[in-house]
Amino acid sequence: MGLNNLDVTKVSYFKLNNEINIPVDGKIPLNKDQEAVKAFFAENVEPNTMKFDSFKDHIDYLIDNDYIEKEVIDKYPFEFIDQLYQSLLDQNFQFKSFMAAYKFFNQYVIKTNDGDMYLENYEMRILFNALLFANGDQEQATTLANEMIMQRYQPATPSFLNAGRKRRGEYVSCFLLQITDDMNSIGRTINSALQLSRIGGGVGITLSNLRESGSPIKGIDNSSSGVLPVMKLLEDSFSYSNQLGQRQGAGAVYLNVFHPDIIDFLSAKKENADEKVRVKTLSLGVIVPDKYYELIRNDADMYLFSPYSVERVYGVPFSYVDITKEYDNMVADDRIKKYKINARELEDEISKLQQESGYPYVLNIDTVNRDNPIDGKIIMSNLCTEIQQVQIPSELNDAQEYTQLGTDVSCNLGSTNILNMMESPDFGKSIRSMLRALTFVSDASNITAVPSVAHGNTMSHSVGLGAMGLHTYLAKHHIEYGSPESIEFIGVYFMLLNYWTLVESNHIAKERSETFANFDKSAYADGSYFDKYLTEDFAPKSDLVKELFAGIKIPDQNDWANLKADVQRDGLYNAYRLAVAPNGSISYVNNTSASLQPITRLVEERQEKKNGKLYFPAPLLSNDTIGYYKSAYDTDMRKVIDIYASAQRFVDQGMSLTLFVRSVIPEGLYEWKTEPKQTTRDLSILRNYAYYKGIKSLYYVRTFTENNDEIGSNECESCSI
C-alpha cells in the first residue's frame, strides 16, 4: 500500500483517538487511546515498514542506499551491534499513547526517499543514537541504549532525529549569535543565520549593540535605520532556510530594555503594525538589567542610551556595559546621547504585547551574570531562553573576514525523564553516561560555516542536560504541584544532576588532560563555586521527600569537599552542563509532561495540519491521579515560579519557564484581583515576582481564551481506564 497511498478516511486510529474527548457516562474513555495505538500499528506501521530477511541485510541496505553513515557502524564489531539491537527488542517496548507513537513515526523515523515506507523502528533509532554517541565504546553504547529504551534519557530532537543518518542536519539544538555595530557584522550574521537555520535548530541573535534609529553614520545625523530593518532581514532569512525541510527555520532576536529602539522593537510584533516593520514569525526577547526593576518600583523615568555613543565612551559594545552599575554615570555623562521615557509605561507595553502575542521573552541579565561561574559576560539567550553562556565579540574587516575571532554559542541538549530516572538502578551512572553522550555531540560538532560558533564550542565544550515529566511524577506519587514537598523534591533532584555532571566532567578532564578554556579564571578553579555546598545541607528534609529518594545516594558535605578538591586539581571539561528546555514535542514520545511545568489540560488537544485534531491524555491519568492533575491555566503561576526557582539554584544556565494565564482568571487564584479579566498588571506582578525569586529567564506567556463551543473530556468529573 505505502504511506503515500494511505487513505486516512479508511483507518480507525484517528477516530479512536478522537473518542477520548467524548465522555461515556460522564467518564473519560482512556481505553480508546490504547485501541488507537494498536490500530495505528496494525493499519499504518506494520504494513508500511520495509521487511528484510535479516538484521545484517537491513543494515547493509541502509548503508548501501545512503540512509545511515557507514562510519558509525564500522566503529563496532557487527556481532556487538546485532546483540545490542536484540537486547533492545527484548525489552518489548510499547508506546504508551497514540500521540507518542504518531509523533515518533511521523517526525523521527527514517523513511524511504519517496516517504512511502518506514525503514526503522523505535529500537533502531535508539540503536543508532547509542552507537553514535558512544563513539566506539561498547560499554557506553550498551549503557546509553538501556537509558534510552527505559526512557530515562531523551536526546534533543536534532540529535535524536539525525543520529546515524547519512543525509542530515547537525545534532545541535540551537545557536546564539551577537551582532556588533557595523555593516560587516550585520552582513556576516545574516549569512550565519541562513547557514545555521539550514543545518541545525533555532538561532538567537542579540541586536543590543546596534545604534538606534536616527543616530549618525560617518558623521551624518539621522542616517541609521535602527534595529527594525535588521529584524526584517533576519526574519526573511529564517523563512527561506530550514533544516533540509525537516524543521521550520526559527529565530529569536533580543534587545536591551535600555536601547532607544525598545518601543519600536516591541511594536513590530503587534497585529496592527505596518507591514514594512511587522515581524510575524520572529520571536522577541528583552534583556532586563536590575536597574529596570528599581525604576519600575520607584515609578521613575528611565533613560535609554545610544549604543553608538556608549561604545565610544566605554570602548566596548553596548552589551558589555554593566548598565545597573553605570546607569547614574551614563545619565550624567553629556557625551552619551539619551532618551527619556517612563519605566512603568514601558512595563505596560511589555505586558500588552505578552497579552497579544506571548512575547517578549524576558532575560534577567544581572541575575544571570551573578550566578555565572565562568570568566566573562553573558549578554543574551537563545530561542527558548535556557541557554546562557559567555560570549566574546568578533571583529571583521570589509571582506567580512575575522580580524579578531570571538566566541558564539551552539547548544547541545538532552533531558532526563524524572519519572523513570527515579527508578534508575544507579542514578549517578545514568547521569554520567548522559553527560558523556552530550559531550560527544559537542566534540563532533564543527560548524565551519560560522567560525565564531565553532570557536566557542571548541573552547567551552558546553552542553545542557535538563529534565521533563515533573508533573507526571508528582501526580503518580499524589503530591500537589507547587506544594512544599514538590519544591523540595525538584531542588534535590537538580542538586543530584549538578553533582553527577560535575563528577563526570571532572573525569573527562582528567582522562584527556584538557579543561574548557580559561578554567583557571573560573569560580570552579578558585573553589568559590563549592562554598554553598560545604556550608549548607541540600539533602531531603521532609519524610516524604526522604522516602522518594530512598536508595539513591545523596552527596554529603564530605562528598562535595572531595569533588571540590578533584575539580581544583584536574579541572572540568565542560564550561556549562545543565539547562532545562521546554521539550514539548519530544515529551509526547516519552509519554510524560513537558519540562517542569504543569499539564495544560487533562486531555490535551493538538491541531495536526493534515489530520485535524489529535488528543493526548495526561500521562498516567487515572482515577488515582486525576486529583493531582490541575491545569496550568488554573494554577497560581507563583507556584510554577517557586518550582523553577528551587531547581534554578543548581542549574548553571537557564530554564524555559512558560507562564500560563486565562483571559478570565478564576476567582480567588490571585489575592490582588478585584475583577476576573486578565490585565497588564497581572503579568507585571508575575514577572516581578519571578525576578525577586531569582529566576533568570521567562520564556513564553500563553493566554487561554475561553471557548465553550466544544464540550469534551476536560469537563468530566472523573475518569477510568
From TrEMBL:
<dbReference type="InterPro" id="IPR013509">
    <property type="entry name" value="RNR_lsu_N"/>
</dbReference>
<dbReference type="GO" id="GO:0005971">
    <property type="term" value="C:ribonucleoside-diphosphate reductase complex"/>
</dbReference>
<comment type="similarity">
    <text>Belongs to the ribonucleoside diphosphate reductase large chain family.</text>
</comment>
<dbReference type="InterPro" id="IPR013346">
    <property type="entry name" value="NrdE_NrdA_C"/>
</dbReference>
<dbReference type="InterPro" id="IPR013554">
    <property type="entry name" value="RNR_N"/>
</dbReference>
<protein>
    <recommendedName>
        <fullName>Ribonucleoside-diphosphate reductase</fullName>
        <ecNumber>1.17.4.1</ecNumber>
    </recommendedName>
</protein>
<dbReference type="Pfam" id="PF00317">
    <property type="entry name" value="Ribonuc_red_lgN"/>
</dbReference>
<feature type="domain" description="Ribonucleotide reductase large subunit">
    <location>
        <begin position="560"/>
        <end position="582"/>
    </location>
</feature>
<dbReference type="GO" id="GO:0005524">
    <property type="term" value="F:ATP binding"/>
</dbReference>
<dbReference type="Pfam" id="PF08343">
    <property type="entry name" value="RNR_N"/>
</dbReference>
<keyword id="KW-0215">Deoxyribonucleotide synthesis</keyword>
<feature type="coiled-coil region">
    <location>
        <begin position="329"/>
        <end position="356"/>
    </location>
</feature>
<dbReference type="GO" id="GO:0004748">
    <property type="term" value="F:ribonucleoside-diphosphate reductase activity, thioredoxin disulfide as acceptor"/>
</dbReference>
<keyword id="KW-0547">Nucleotide-binding</keyword>
<dbReference type="InterPro" id="IPR026459">
    <property type="entry name" value="RNR_1b_NrdE"/>
</dbReference>
<dbReference type="InterPro" id="IPR000788">
    <property type="entry name" value="RNR_lg_C"/>
</dbReference>
<keyword id="KW-0067">ATP-binding</keyword>
<dbReference type="InterPro" id="IPR039718">
    <property type="entry name" value="Rrm1"/>
</dbReference>
<keyword id="KW-0021">Allosteric enzyme</keyword>
<dbReference type="InterPro" id="IPR008926">
    <property type="entry name" value="RNR_R1-su_N"/>
</dbReference>
<keyword id="KW-0560">Oxidoreductase</keyword>
<dbReference type="Pfam" id="PF02867">
    <property type="entry name" value="Ribonuc_red_lgC"/>
</dbReference>
<keyword id="KW-0175">Coiled coil</keyword>
<comment type="function">
    <text>Provides the precursors necessary for DNA synthesis. Catalyzes the biosynthesis of deoxyribonucleotides from the corresponding ribonucleotides.</text>
</comment>
<dbReference type="GO" id="GO:0009263">
    <property type="term" value="P:deoxyribonucleotide biosynthetic process"/>
</dbReference>
<keyword id="KW-1015">Disulfide bond</keyword>
